[in-house]
Amino acid sequence: MPVFPVRTLPRKLYNRCPHGIGVAAGVKPARANGGGPEGAVAAANRWLGFLRGRTHLLPGDPVISSSPLEVTQLDQLCVNTIRCLAMDAVEQAKSGHPGMPMGAAPMAYVLWTRFLRHNPRNPRWPGRDRFILSAGHGSMLLYSLLHLTGYDLSLDDLKQFRQWGSKTPGHPENLLVAGIEMTTGPLGQGFATGVGMAIAEKYLAARFNRPGHELVNHRIYAIVSDGDLMEGVSHEAGSLAGHLGLDNLIYLYDDNHISIEGSTDLAFTEDAGKRFEAYGWFVQRLSDGNDLAAIDQAICAAQSQKGKPSIIMVRTHIAYGAPHAQDTAEAHGAPLGEEEVKLTKQAYGWPVEPKFHIPDEALAHFRRAIERGARAEAEWQARWTAYQQAFPDLAAEWERLVRGELPEGWAAKIPSFQPADGPLATRQASGKVLAAIAPTLPELMGGSADLSPSTNTYVKGLGDFSRSNYGARNLHFGVREHAMGSILNGMALSGLIPYGGTFMIFSDYARPAIRLAALMEAHSIFVFTHDSIFLGEDGPTHQPVEHLPALRAIPNLTLIRPADANETAVAWRVAIERRGGPVALALTRQVLPVIDRSKYASAEGLVRGGYILADATGKTPEIILIASGSEVAVALEAFEKLSAEGIPGRVVSLPSWDLFDAQAQSYKDEVLPPGITARLAIEAAVPLGWDRYVGPKGAVIGMTRFGASAPYKILAEKFGFTAANVIQRAKEILGR
Ligand SMILES: Cc1ncc(C[n+]2csc(CCOP(=O)(O)OP(=O)(O)O)c2C)c(N)n1
Ligand SMILES: [Mg+2]
Q: Which residue has its alpha carbon closest to ligand 1 atom 18?
């Protein structure tokens, strides 16, 4: 029997609903794609089909109703609650995107009330399913669901939509509300990041699950839009997800044929389903986005697919039910307007006032998520308790991962390097560090975009992650830098420490993901090798010049460009230990000397971003040479020669502006004393931003043009990255 007093709802509420499923007797459902009214018996059968494959229905949940009609009335009420909240919030904010939530409300409703395993009262419970609203512009859909199902997001928060300081900004932000798994808005990112979450789930399941003890078995759901599917990054990630057979991934596609400029016929006419089939996905096509039963069954079918990610293409209608706005591009990103909202509410059989109306019955129905969530978590906790008893060591490791702590003493494995070992590129040093630390850090996992022989990111002995070996830790992203970046973020948001390598020049291809990592405070590590013109013969197409300043411009990204092998080792330690954001390592292709730390300062100085590497003895330095990465060795050589000529100097190694800028002013003044204004920076990149370190009387030896194809020693001569040029410029500054 239904547990909700649906019969007490005013009958006309349903009779007046012009569209949708299961409307009251005598009203012909206007099905979006020409489907006729559904017979009661057929409808009942479909509803009974709901029960299969679903684990979190409570006894007495209304799907067990003797009358499917009553059930759908309540369902319809809930769906329309989401729609009206979205309309009202956008109207009140005088900005936002009402159309998408209105069209996608049914699929979101079915997913959130019947499938998503989540606990609104403990949103970070590790056993939960993940939900991503990849079409982040439809944020009111997510905010409504969070509020309605009982997360810590109040109706007042909804009323503050898009206002200063609110928890409900224009696009969902993961740091603001527990329950928002990731920040979305840049289309395609949610899609691709979900693939990273699916990879993480598969890895964790392989690492921790044991026969009879399934600790990890969650799914990753997303609602994706036309824009998501048009973006290249979803193609990259979709292709890889199919290849890897990630059947824990279930995406619902809000196939509404509308984007900002109009119909998708303008620019997007391929059969997207065929594309996903070609990628190895399980594709289902639903012709009516309001058919809750069909959505339910499709999700069931997706859940039972083995070895394939799923996409359910749901034909929806943007701004569904709005008499003039439905199926128009205008409904995408502008308030419907007071009159249209009124007409739409009337069409739904909804009271025009008050705004933000939530029927008690709908709220009660949504709020059953709390009880279901508690039950689901309790069930998982029971599994966890049994697991702890059966596998105490693994359980301890799991707890450590969940707490985000590193194993005690892990850093002892980091190697140090001696000058006598001979020169080596920082990418090589990086590879040695990775190989040394990876065995003790099961959360460390990564790979490269088809460049591991060059990026030194492959760790021998850890296996190749594939559909037949999800426990392996070397990922092969293929030539897909953008998806690699997003996937790293998804893994980081799942508690792993992921890294991904490519040439620094191709950081541009991953930049949207890097930026999002910084915004989300995700602990992704980007390994960018071939970090300057000194990669040499490959020429200007491969030689980054503007990339260091471009990466430094991203807030909350810690960029580190170590000067030698030992700085690289410390850089990795900093990268692994960082909390609250991503790290990018800039590493050389060419070999560099290992700086003699018995003569010069310890590489530990890197921790502070910049430090005095070499200093005039017994004299105040007349000039400060500041450099990063491969140019530090050039500065050191010049420093020695200047000293020999009786010009006392100082060399500051400045591997990370981000870390240095965060130091106390007293430390910064110690390294760069305000009284010493003769300063020369040397860095093989566009000199943007260096003036803050060299000051008005200083100068920079940098790159003000693209590089060229030649051996790197020739490039150093031609572009002035030699000790001789440094000495000459230093003397010019000093007026000697
Ligand atoms: C990478 C990226 N490019 C552009 C935009 C701006 N934008 C927001 S939504 C959108 C397209 C809207 O179409 P669709 O994804 O189908 O959403 P719908 O209109 O159906 O809600 C665009 C171009 C964006 N958010 N992200
Ligand atoms: Mg669309």
A: 259
